[in-house]
Amino acid sequence: MTKSSTTKAVPANMGQLWNIKTVLRNFGPLLGFVAIVLIFSILTGGKIIAASNLSLMLSNVFVLMIASTGVFFIMTVGGLDFSQGSVLGLSSIIFCWVSQYNIPLAVLSSVAAGAAMGAFNGFFHVKFKIASFIVTMCSQYFFRGLCKYITTKGPVPASLQVLDLDRTGFKMTLMLIVLVVAFLIWHFTRVGFDLRAIGAGETAARFSGSRPDFTKFMVYVASGAITGFASFINVVRVGSITGTAGRQLETQILIALVLGGMPISGGARARFSNIIIGTLTYCVLEKSLPMVFPVSATQQLVKGIIFLIVVALTIDHQSLKVIK
Q1: What's the farthest any 2 CA atoms get from each other in the chain?
Q2: pLDDT confidence of residue 18
């Protein structure tokens, strides 16, 4: 009797494991990306996959994918960061200033500036136990105000030598370096384990030897530093910085990660592929929608519908909780 009941239980469990929802959660983002590329290739008559359009899309991918990498770590521990656009803008200004003297020093300065702003967010979040989205919304306005104050008299130009670095191969190499380092940390170090454990539950993570408060603080520092590095590529692309630099970046990152299948609550269901698939999906949508729907309001409507569908299909209600 025991053998037969066990034999019957295995197929039932396997059936539950591989139900439609599980398949959508695991493979939905990739299938969605392929579907979006195919649909918009048909609707645009193949223009979206033309070499010129692919080049334009790539120019938008670099900054978004690098900045999304840092926020991915934050979301894994169950947090959010709405200050990324302002961090990028202020770090870009600092890079422009220092680039007039030395470009490598300017890169280090922008990374240090991003890390300092990330430490600001992490300190108030961890020390005073303020929800991450509240802290980062407040710092968003603070950093954005500094950007606008600095650029009151006009854009802040970078050194002319920076423009010589505006090469697709160079920017691609930098992006791949960031992704490879982040991937190795995520999969092959204790840090990656701690991030997933904290996102799943801080109490259990603490008993497993993790230090949730210190780890969360360092995650914000690292995310700020990564965005500070992204500001280097941002300046290389645009040449000078205004007070609106990086505007809406935080929204773009959040949408991109969710489109890539990133669970809002973080934890063990986070996958590194969320960054790559999500960023590519978002960039394809951003480039394709104006070709199909010339009216801006229609573009926003379609984008919102797609975003809601993806969230509805991929969200995990069992692990959903209040953002930390």
Answers
A1: 84
A2: 54
